[in-house]
Every structure is written in structure tokens, then in C-alpha cells.
Specification:
Layout: H1 11-30, H2 43-54, H3 60-79, H4 83-108, H5 117-146, H6 153-180, H7 190-211, H8 222-254, H9 263-321, E1 325-329, E2 335-338, H10 340-346, H11 360-368, H12 371-387, E3 391-398, E4 404-415, E5 421-430, H13 432-454, E6 458-462, E7 468-471, H14 473-479, H15 489-496, H16 502-515, E8 519-526, E9 532-543, E10 549-558, H17 560-582, E11 586-590, E12 596-599, H18 601-607, H19 621-629, H20 632-648, E13 652-659, E14 665-676, E15 682-691, H21 693-716, H22 722-748, H23 754-782, E16 789-792, H24 794-812, E17 814-821, E18 827-830, H25 831-848, E19 856-865, E20 868-874, H26 901-911, E21 915-920, E22 926-933, H27 942-950, E23 957-962
Parallel strand pairs: 17-19
Antiparallel strand pairs: 1-2, 1-5, 3-4, 4-5, 6-7, 6-10, 8-9, 9-10, 11-12, 11-15, 13-14, 14-15, 16-18, 17-23, 19-20, 20-22, 21-22
Length: 964
């Protein structure tokens, strides 16, 4: 169902429509002059049709309802017909309006304005001819059915039809004008207003005279009526028709009109009245439409003439301003017209080229064209004139300032319908800049080709289809000129690329050609001599202004040396990688902020997880690694030292416990050093972790042994040994006694504590063994026993001794520098006793530097001198005050010393067949030196074989630094 409510007209418009409808009904009733009938000029018809023609079709139901209300109200006011009859009469009127509006809208298919003869004729035929048939039929039948005023169908129908037609012709145009121009303001000049006033007075005078009976007939009113239609078009016609209708109505109602007579002739006079008004309205509307069309035609003609003048002026401007030289020639070739641009170029016009008894064409060519080009141009023009064919030629013309400029001249003939040449049109375009640019381009191209041949790489170009368009000379010198069969990229690639490289090269090239993206190929190119060299070919497309690829350019560079260097670099990298992965150490690399970025296989196996598997949540990878692996007791110190190193850039060195993949904590020595660039910025941290768990435990044992040896040395310093032996043995004996008493208490307790008693008994046994061992060692020392001697390398004993005192060196911040000669000969020694000598001498050197400030260093050097191995231990302390007495027993320079340490050391060295003495160290300090005889040549021990196999034959010394 079509929606109606959204198209509801404004209530004010509906009210005006109802008021006008009711007034129209009253006007019709006033003109019903035929006795016994209410049929007259029906004004509501025109109002109803005009309203529906202009209103949207969706709003028609509202207008129909408003009309029904107005009709019924008018019936109450004017007609007093039975209600059913009044309703049926309105149905006929509504159908008449709907049919008329539909026919007009469908016929014209646009908004009707009655401005053309077609619109007026369509309106008259459809609205005043066809539509009233419906109303007249329904209305006449209703009158006859209900017997209103004794009307018959045949008698009422003609009056009804002509009355509706007259109402449509008079009122509908008025309604259209009022509705369409409701808000428009018509502005007339004073002359027009004066003309309208005069015309109105004349019309009213003529109408009064003709309709009052003073003039012989009513149609004398037509001249002023048509005058108004011609001069003021539709608006004037409508207004004059309204005035005519009103005047006619006044005289008719008053009885003074010629259309009023006796009852026998009144019916005929009624029809004459209706015909008079209808003919007047029809004539006025037709004349107004013709006048309007005439005015529109005149306006269009004036506009066309003005447009033609503008077009002619514009064409003249175009001809003069277009950036070419235009001239017109006769069929014989004589110039008849130069445009302004050409006359400005030459600095003269056609009149100046006219010479008696000489062709103007020859004069123009000889005087205005370069002498080198004049003959060829004149020959081309004459050939075209003879054959009728166009010509095109480049030549030089002289400008007004005497400068010759290159132009592109062309001429074509203009022919009539018989193909006869009427005239020639010639143009010349200034191409001097283009010619010079082409010349410069040729020079630039030549320079470019020379540059291409000089650059150290080969150039090739291909069309977008793949067809080869250019090959540089350098390429031909290297790979040879392509054969005749090679015309495109695929064939060339198949010819010159190594078979192993061709599939990859072709696939990458096809992808680049398909996508239009630049691409790079590295492959081995076949040379003229049959060999192959690595080249890098870079392809780049050249695109036009529209983005389409115009050409592909390839530049190939010889990279044979680079590829060899890369291969050597990869081989070196592979070697270094294998070296790092196989080193018996755990390697770690970290970013400048400490975040780990690489771990060697040794470290990954030790930790038991990959770096990618570590998830510390909000923690950094470094913090997560330390939390996951470092022993809780060492964690805080490790983090603190790491933070200090990262902030200061100083190397990192620390021993701590790290958890192995099986859960066991092992002692690790971690060393980290920064790798810097040339500006000193840290690029990464290189970290090495050494498993020193065994060494740490051995150091702990050696530390304990050192303490025992120190106590043994102090005890051995007594000549009689009684006090020393008593001191050394008294401690384990006292421990034995204490543990025995404890065991007795545990056994005497109630209940007996067996477990504690067992533990105490084990301690008793341990202390007893310690006492026995002390006694045995002391006896062996002073009995010069050789039972514990073995063939050893002194460098191993020195390393063990340095490890024993390393903790003391760290606390005292002393650097121990060890320098050992490689391939030292073995020595027959007692390891413990020689260690005691080394420890005693090293501790004496460290104690001698307690009172100095600044950097402290102690050097240990060992090397072969003849048949002996000589060892030197030097410090930078205050030196020796009494060098001749320091080896005497009971002589000491220490506050708490017993004076037996150096005496025992000398006795141990001399017991091994060596010597021990002291010298002054330069620039300060003291140096203790002792020698031990080497073992005579014999079959080498397995340890010596291993050492010789690991030592480099060309290395004289192997320095080692022990950094606390």
C-alpha cells in the first residue's frame, strides 16, 4: 500500500483549497441563469485539476477528501440537493480532476507551465475536452436519477460538459499561475505598468460597452484580450480572463447582458455565454503560448547570435593566440592570411610581401626562410600544390630580430563536396628548443655511452617483453657478443649462467619481471675463454609517467675476489665456531646491557637448557639466568659485581657456585671482558666460565696443608725440635683428650648416646692420625729422607703453591706474575717440602709489601741455567736490611717471627742438592733465588711426553699471569 501520511499537505494549504472550492461553487450557482437548472460555469473543476497536476500523487487522497468536504459544504450553502446526489455529483467531479491530472502529467511528463503551444493544446484537449466527459456523464445521470429540477440526461449533459470545460479553461491557468508563482515578485518597469493600466482601462471599457448591449456583439472584446495575451503572455491572459469572467458575471446576474433573455431562449443564451467565455479563454491561452514561444525563440536567437559572435571572437583569439604560426593559401599557393603570432614573428604583414610581377609565395620563402632550407621548402610546397597531398618539413625561419629558429611546417588542403581544393592551411610550430635539446641529447647520449663503456661494470638493457636491446662493450669483451640466436633474457641467462646457478637466477628474474620490483642475482658467468667468474647482476626497471615499465637495465659487477674472500671468511668463521664450541670452557656472549645473546654448547650442556627456553617473566634474561643458576649464598655478590662491571665497563672476575643440570652446585670462575669499537663504545661482553670446582677444593685442601706446613715450619725452626714437636703434637693430643672426655660423657649419660659417642671416637682417631703424620714428617725432614721424592716438573709445583696463596694475595690485593720457561727439565724433589719453600718465600715477599702504597706485584720466574732449574721470587717491598744473617736460625725481622723459616728453606733446598740466596731487586725490594739440579737424561715419563706434545716448538717462554 502506498504511504499517504508522510505526504499530508500543510493544513493552511488545505484550508485555502476548501475556501476557494466553496467560493467557486458559489460563483457557479450565481451564473446558473437557466430556469430549473443549477448547471453553469463550474470553477471548482479548474481549481481541482490544477491542484492535482502540481501536487505529488501520494498526496492526492488528501485533496480528494478536502474537495469532498468542500462539495458537501457548498451543497448545504448553495445547492440544497439530496446528500446522496451531492456525493455522487462530487464523485464525478473528483474523477474528472483525477483523470485530467493523470492525462496531463503522463502526456507532458514534466511540470506544466502553459508556456508552449504544445502544453496549451494538451491542456485544452485533455482537461477541457476529455476530463469533463466523466463529470458530465456522472452528474447528468445523477440529476436524471434523482429527478432534480426535472432534468433529463440528454438535456443536462451538454450544459454540464461545456460548463466544466469553461471552468477548466478559465480557473486552471489562474490556479497554476498563483500556485507556481506564490513567492515570486514580478518586477515591471514604469512603462510596462503604464501599458498594463491603459490596457486594463481599455478592456474594462470595451467589456462594459459590449456586455451591456451598447455595442452590437460581445466578441468585440477580443482585440484587447489578445493584446494582453501578446504583451503580457500567460499572466496577462489569465488576469484579463478573470476580469472578463467577473464582468460577464456581473452583467449576466444584473440582467443587462446580451446572454440574458426570455425563458424560451435562455437555454440557448446560456450555451452562448459558456461558449463566449470558453472561446475567449482558449484564444487568450493560445495567443499567450504563441507569444511566449515567439519571445523564447527571439531570446534564443539573440543568445545564439551573441554566442556566435563570442565564438567568432574566441576563434579569432584562438587563431591569433594558439602557440603555432597559421597561414592560409590559395589553391595556387599564394598566401592570403597570417595570424597575429606569425606576423609578430616575422615583424611584417602580407602587404609587405607583395612585389610587382613576383609570386608572394616565392618572395616569402626567399626572404623569410634560411637560404640552406629555402629551395627544399619551395620544392616541397610546389609538389604538394601539384599533387594535392599534404607536406611536412623541418626548416629554419628568420625571426624579426634576424635570428633563425627551427620550425616544423605542415600544410593540408581544404576541399569542397566535389573534392576540389578550396584553399590550403599551413602551420609552423617553433621546435628550435626541441631541436637544440635533441642535439644536446645526442651529445649527452654519446657522453653517456662513453661513460658506460668506462665504468668498471657491464650494462645490458631489455624491453618489458624480455627482448634484449643493448649490450655494453665491456660485457662483450668479458663474455663475448651474444649470438644471433640469443634475443631475450631467458636465452642469454641459459647461455652464460653456470648450470648450478641457472634455476635460482631464472626464478628470481621471472619474479622480478612479473612484479616489476628490482632484484639482484649472484651467479657464476661463463667467460669467453670458457672459465667462470662470480658476478653480481642488479636489475632496475625504468618507468614512464603512467607508471608502466619502459625498460629494464642490468648492471653486472665482477665479485670473484669478494666471493673468495667471503668463502675464506666463512671457512674462518666455521673454524672459529668449531673452536669455540669445542674449547674445554663455557663461553657466553652478552649485549652491552648484559643480556645474554649466545651460549656455547659446553655452557648449554652444563646448564641443561637453551637460551630461548628461559622465561623470566618481568625479569631480564641476565637476572633470570643468575637467579636460576647461581648459588643463593653467592647470588647477591655476583649481581652486585655484574652491575658494577656493566656500569663502569671494567672486566669481571669472580668465583662462585653454579648449579649444573643435575642439580649439583659446582665452583665456577667467571671472567667477563668488554669488546669495544674504535670509539671505545662497548659492542658486547665476552664471558668465559671455567669449571674450577676441583681446583677450589684442592686449594681448600692445599690451604689447610699450607697452614699445617706453616705450623710445621715454625716447629722445625727449633734446633732441638722439642718445643716445635710438642707444639705440633700437643694440639691433636689435646683434641684427643677433649674428645675422649666427651666420649666418656656420652657413654656415661643415661641413656647412653651411642651416636654422639661414635662421632667423638671418629674425631679421636682422626686427631691421633694427624699427630702421627706430624711426627713422621718432622722425622723425615731432619733425617734427610728421600722416600717421598719423585721426578716432577717444577712449574706444576709452582702453580700449586700460587693457588695455595692466591686467597692471601686477593685479600692483600697483590698481583702474582708467573713467567715459566717452556719444556723445563724434570727435577727429583719432595713435592710437600719444595711447596713449603715456595710458600714461605712468597708469603715473606707479600708481607714485605704490607707497608707500601699503590700497586703491589710479586713476580715468580723459573728457567733452566746449565744443569739446574733456577727459580726467582721478587717483591717490591722495603728490601733486606741484613742480607748476610737472614738465613741464620732464630734471626728474624718480624715482631712475632721465630727466625727459623728461611733456615728451614735453605736446609730443604740444600737437602735436594740446590742452593738458596737473596739479592737486591731493582728498583726496590728483594729477590730470593734457589736452584735444583735436573734429573739426568733418561726415558721420558708419560707426563713429560704429554707436555712435549702440547708445547709449541717455536715458543721460548710461556708467560702466565695470576690475577687475584
Amino acid at each position: 500500500m502506498m504511504p499517504v501520511w508522510p505526504y499530508r499537505p500543510h493544513p493552511r494549504h488545505l484550508g485555502l483549497f476548501i475556501v476557494a472550492y466553496v467560493l467557486g461553487c458559489g460563483f457557479a450557482q450565481a451564473l446558473a441563469i437557466v430556469p430549473g437548472t443549477g448547471i453553469s460555469i463550474w470553477a471548482p473543476t479548474g481549481l481541482f485539476i490544477a491542484t492535482l497536476v502540481l501536487a505529488p500523487r501520494q498526496s492526492w487522497p488528501w485533496w480528494v477528501l478536502a474537495g469532498c468536504f468542500a462539495e458537501l459544504l457548498s451543497n448545504v450553502l448553495w445547492f440544497h440537493s439530496p446528500l446522496p446526489a451531492a456525493f455522487l455529483i462530487y464523485v464525478g467531479n473528483a474523477l474528472e480532476a483525477v483523470v485530467g491530472a493523470l492525462l496531463v502529467n503522463r502526456t507532458l511528463k514534466r511540470s506544466i507551465r502553459l508556456e508552449t503551444l504544445q502544453e496549451v493544446l494538451a491542456f485544452v484537449v485533455l482537461c477541457a475536452g476529455v476530463a469533463p466527459v466523466v463529470s458530465a456523464t456522472v452528474g447528468s445521470a445523477t440529476l436524471a436519477w434523482f429527478g432534480i429540477l426535472s432534468q433529463t440526461f440528454a438535456g443536462a449533459w451538454p450544459l454540464w460538459w461545456i460548463g466544466d470545460a469553461t471552468g477548466a479553461l478559465i480557473v486552471a491557468p489562474l490556479a497554476l499561475i498563483v500556485i507556481q508563482n506564490w513567492r515570486d515578485k514580478t518586477e515591471f518597469s514604469a512603462a510596462r505598468w503604464a501599458e498594463a493600466c491603459v490596457l486594463g482601462l481599455i478592456f474594462l471599457g470595451v467589456a462594459a460597452l459590449s456586455l451591456s448591449g451598447y455595442l452590437p456583439f460581445a466578441y468585440i472584446i477580443m482585440p484587447p484580450l489578445l493584446w494582453a495575451a501578446v504583451r503580457f503572455e500567460l499572466k496577462g491572459a489569465v488576469i484579463i480572463l478573470v476580469l472578463l469572467t467577473l464582468v460577464t458575471a456581473i452583467f449576466t446576474i444584473s440582467g443587462a447582458s446580451p446572454f440574458v433573455g426570455d425563458p424560451e431562449t435562455q437555454r440557448h443564451r446560456q450555451i452562448m455565454l459558456q461558449l463566449f467565455l470558453a472561446i475567449s479563454a482558449f484564444s487568450a491561452l493560445i495567443v499567450a503560448a504563441i507569444s511566449r514561444q515567439h519571445q523564447l525563440a527571439l531570446s534564443n536567437l539573440r543568445q545564439s547570435v551573441a554566442a556566435l559572435r563570442d565564438r567568432e571572437r574566441e576563434l579569432s583569439q584562438i587563431v591569433n593566440m594558439v602557440p603555432v604560426h597559421i597561414r592560409r593559401l590559395t589553391p595556387e599557393g599564394e598566401p592570403t592570411f597570417f595570424n597575429k603570432r606569425l606576423t609578430d614573428f616575422f615583424g611584417l604583414d602580407l602587404r609587405q610581401l607583395s612585389k610587382p610581377n613576383e609570386s608572394r609565395l616565392v618572395t616569402a620563402v626567399q626572404s623569410l626562410v634560411h637560404p640552406d632550407d629555402a629551395d627544399s621548402l619551395l620544392q616541397a610546397v610546389r609538389l604538394s600544390l601539384a599533387t594535392g597531398e599534404p607536406y611536412s618539413l623541418k626548416y629554419r625561419m628568420r625571426r624579426a630580430d634576424g635570428v633563425y629558429r627551427w620550425v616544423d611546417g605542415r600544410a593540408e588542403p581544404l576541399r569542397d563536396e566535389n573534392e576540389t581544393i578550396v584553399q590550403w592551411f599551413a602551420i609552423s610550430i617553433d621546435i628550435d628548443d626541441e631541436v637544440r635539446a635533441q642535439e644536446a641529447l645526442r651529445n649527452s647520449k654519446q657522453q653517456l655511452e662513453q661513460m658506460i663503456e668506462a665504468v668498471p661494470f657491464s650494462i645490458l638493457s631489455f624491453a618489458p617483453s624480455g627482448e634484449m636491446t643493448y649490450v655494453s662493450k665491456r660485457y662483450q669483451d668479458q663474455a663475448g657478443a651474444p649470438t644471433a640466436q640469443i634475443k631475450d633474457f631467458d636465452a642469454l641467462a641459459r647461455e652464460v649462467a653456470h648450470p648450478d646457478d641457472f634455476p635460482t637466477l631464472l626464478a628470481r628474474a621471472k619474479k622480478g619481471f612479473a612484479t616489476g620490483q628490482p632484484f639482484v642475482n649472484r651467479f657464476r658467468q661463463c667467460l669467453k675463454d670458457g672459465g667462470y667468474r662470480w658476478i653480481e647482476a642488479r636489475a632496475q626497471p625504468l618507468r614512464g609517467a603512467d607508471g608502466a615499465i619502459v625498460q629494464w637495465y642490468f648492471a653486472s659487477i665482477d665479485i670473484e675476489e669478494e666471493m673468495r674472500a667471503q668463502e675464506a671468511l666463512r671457512e674462518r668463521e666455521r673454524f672459529l665456531w668449531q673452536l669455540v664450541e669445542t674449547l674445554p670452557a663455557m663461553i657466553d656472549c652478552a649485549a652491552p646491557n648484559g643480556e645474554p645473546v649466545y651460549r656455547s654448547q659446553q655452557l648449554r650442556d652444563f646448564l641443561g637448557y637453551e637460551l630461548e627456553e628461559l622465561d623470566g617473566g618481568e625479569k631480564s634474561l641476565l637476572e633470570a639466568t643468575l637467579d636460576a643458576g647461581v648459588h643463593p649464598d653467592d647470588l647477591a655478590g655476583v649481581k652486585e659485581q655484574y652491575a658494577l662491571s656493566l656500569a663502569s665497563g671494567e672486566p669481571f672476575l669472580r668465583k662462585h657456585r653454579l648449579r649444573r643440570s643435575d642439580g649439583e652446585y659446582r665452583w665456577i670462575e667467571t671472567r667477563a671482558a668488554p669488546m669495544r669499537n674504535d670509539e671505545g663504545a662497548i659492542l658486547q661482553w665476552n664471558v668465559i666460565c671455567l669449571d674450577v670446582d676441583r681446583e677450589v677444593r684442592m686449594q681448600e685442601e692445599l690451604r689447610l696443608a699450607q697452614e699445617r706446613l706453616a705450623r710445621a715450619g715454625q716447629a722445625a725452626s727449633l734446633a732441638e725440635l722439642s718445643a716445635s714437636i710438642a707444639h705440633e703434637v700437643n694440639q691433636p693430643l689435646a683434641a684427643i683428650v677433649a674428645n675422649s672426655h666427651a666420649c666418656y660423657r656420652w657413654l656415661s649419660a643415661d641413656p647412653v648416646n651411642i651416636e654422639r659417642a661414635k662421632i667423638t671416637t671418629e674425631r679421636v682417631i682422626r686427631d691421633a692420625n694427624s699427630a702421627a703424620e706430624v711426627v713422621s714428617r718432622v722425622r723425615a725432614l731432619f733425617k734427610q729422607s728421600v722416600e717421598n721424592r719423585a721426578i716432577l716438573v717444577l712449574s706444576d709445583v709452582i702453580s700449586e703453591a700460587c693457588s695455595l696463596v692466591a686467597g692471601v694475595a686477593v685479600r692483600r690485593r697483590i698481583l702474582i706474575d708467573i713467567d715459566e720457561e717452556s719444556n723445563l727439565s724434570p727435577v727429583m724433589m719432595d713435592r710437600i717440602q719444595v711447596q713449603q719453600v715456595l710458600i714461605n718465600l712468597i708469603r715473606n715477599g707479600m708481607e714485605a709489601m704490607d707497608s707500601i702504597e699503590g700497586e703491589k706485584a710479586l713476580d715468580v720466574r723459573t728457567y733452566r741455567v746449565g744443569d739446574e732449574v733456577q727459580t726467582e721470587i721478587g717483591d717490591h717491598g722495603n728490601g733486606i736490611a741484613f742480607p748476610d744473617r737472614i738465613f741464620e736460625p732464630f734471626f728474624t725481622t718480624k715482631e712475632n717471627g721465630m727466625g727459623m723459616g728461611l733456615a728451614i728453606c735453605r736446609s730443604i733446598v740444600e737437602a735436594h742438592g740446590g742452593r738458596l740466596w737473596a739479592e737486591k731487586n731493582e728498583p726496590r725490594g728483594a729477590r730470593f733465588i734457589f736452584t735444583l739440579p735436573i734429573v739426568p737424561k733418561a726415558a721420558p715419563s708419560p707426563r713429560e711426553v704429554i707436555r712435549q706434545s702440547l708445547s709449541s716448538p717455536d715458543m721460548a717462554t710461556s708467560p702466565l699471569r695470576c690475577v687475584p
